[in-house]
């Protein structure tokens, strides 16, 4: 049986300790049953209205978003083509015309 990688640091050197899985590199502990359940749900990212997003989709921004560290703003209605889904808090990786590469949260976009 192959143990899953650590959800915290992605280390492959996890081991079992009773009913828990432990990462020796970052000391993160999690239950084995939760790891199996999260593996099924991890791939589903939904937009603000509940549509499932996939790599390559076109989305529209539903709220003015300030770009951190600059005076730029991504305006409501901005279309973003060819998105890429990534793991993390900001789960959409994209390129916006006039601004460049950005990461967006799926809660602020809608699938076109």
UniProtKB/TrEMBL annotation:
<dbReference type="InterPro" id="IPR013988">
    <property type="entry name" value="YjdM_C"/>
</dbReference>
<feature type="domain" description="Protein YjdM N-terminal">
    <location>
        <begin position="2"/>
        <end position="31"/>
    </location>
</feature>
<dbReference type="InterPro" id="IPR004624">
    <property type="entry name" value="YjdM"/>
</dbReference>
<comment type="similarity">
    <text>Belongs to the YjdM family.</text>
</comment>
<dbReference type="InterPro" id="IPR013987">
    <property type="entry name" value="YjdM_N"/>
</dbReference>
<dbReference type="Pfam" id="PF03831">
    <property type="entry name" value="YjdM"/>
</dbReference>
<feature type="domain" description="Protein YjdM C-terminal">
    <location>
        <begin position="45"/>
        <end position="112"/>
    </location>
</feature>
<dbReference type="Pfam" id="PF08274">
    <property type="entry name" value="Zn_Ribbon_YjdM"/>
</dbReference>
<protein>
    <submittedName>
        <fullName>Zinc ribbon domain-containing protein YjdM</fullName>
    </submittedName>
</protein>
